[in-house]
């Protein structure tokens, strides 16, 4: 796909009047050395510290891609694979996987370079976040479609569509269940 490509395979209404942006245009890495301030009671790095870095990196990507402010709408499938320790150099790599009309899924991988080992960086976590681009009033605004470049980008796009379908279906199913319970006069 080119810089000007439009994504038509999503099945979503899309944004035909806005040129596409390649994945590489907004891909970002945020790096941070972990300190004693970042630890939990076990002495390893607190999961919330990693989640903040994930949200920061994903937010930077969403802002870059959409060309303006974007807010976190959801974060899911946050996975912690291995503990991170004080002194480790953590790299948080984020990219836009998929775009809808006003929202973007950002995929994030977290890697750690161990301070006391001369080995390659280890993957220690990953997450998927949905950001909504917003205008000055905080209302959703249209985003450029992402144009996946590599085969890996294309796979991530397709997988993101599956997650999007599941998120919407889950939200709808829960809404229906709650409406049914209210209609049946059940109070909880
Ligand atoms: C996210 C927010 C802008 C959505 O506003 P809204 O009035 O519900 O608008 P919409 O329903 O049109 O949603 C906008 C887009 O976000 C998506 N979206 C909204 N909530 C979502 C959720 N929970 N999960 C996934 N996507 C979501 C919608 O599908 C839509 O995407 P699309 O246009 O590509 O189809 C609004 O809920 C908000 O401002 N939330 C607070 C954000 C914030 O403060 N984040 C920081 C947390 S500390």
Automatic annotation (TrEMBL):
Name of one Pfam family that matches: 4HBT
Residue ranges of the TM segments: none
Cross-referenced Gene3D superfamilies: Hotdog Thioesterase
Gene Ontology CC terms: cytosol
BP term (GO), one: acyl-CoA metabolic process
Keywords: Hydrolase
Keyword match Flavoprotein: no
Region (Disordered): 1-26
Keyword Cytoplasm listed: no
GO terms of molecular function: long-chain fatty acyl-CoA hydrolase activity
Residue ranges occupied by any HotDog ACOT-type domain in the UniProt entry: 24-137
Family classification: Belongs to the acyl coenzyme A hydrolase family.
Protein name (database record): Acyl-CoA hydrolase
Species in which this protein is naturally found: Streptomyces uncialis
């Amino acid at each position: 796909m080119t810089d000007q490509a439009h994504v038509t395979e999503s099945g979503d209404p899309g944004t035909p009047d806005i040129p596409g942006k390649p994945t590489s245009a907004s891909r970002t890495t945020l790096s941070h050395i972990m300190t004693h301030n970042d630890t939990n009671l076990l002495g390893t790095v607190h999961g919330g510290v990693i989640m903040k870095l994930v949200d920061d990196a994903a937010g930077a990507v969403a802002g870059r891609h959409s060309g303006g402010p974007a807010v976190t709408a959801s974060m899911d499938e946050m996975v912690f694979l291995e503990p991170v320790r004080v002194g480790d150099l953590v790299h948080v790599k984020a990219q836009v996987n998929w775009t809808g009309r006003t929202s973007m899924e950002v995929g994030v991988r977290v890697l750690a370079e161990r301070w006391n080992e001369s080995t390659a960086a280890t993957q220690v976590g990953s997450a998927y976040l949905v950001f909504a681009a917003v205008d000055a009033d905080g209302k959703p605004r249209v985003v450029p479609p992402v144009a996946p470049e590599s085969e890996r980008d294309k796979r991530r796009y397709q997988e993101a569509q599956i997650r999007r379908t599941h998120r919407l279906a889950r939200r709808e199913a829960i809404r229906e269940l709650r409406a049914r319970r209210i209609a049946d006069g059940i109070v909880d």
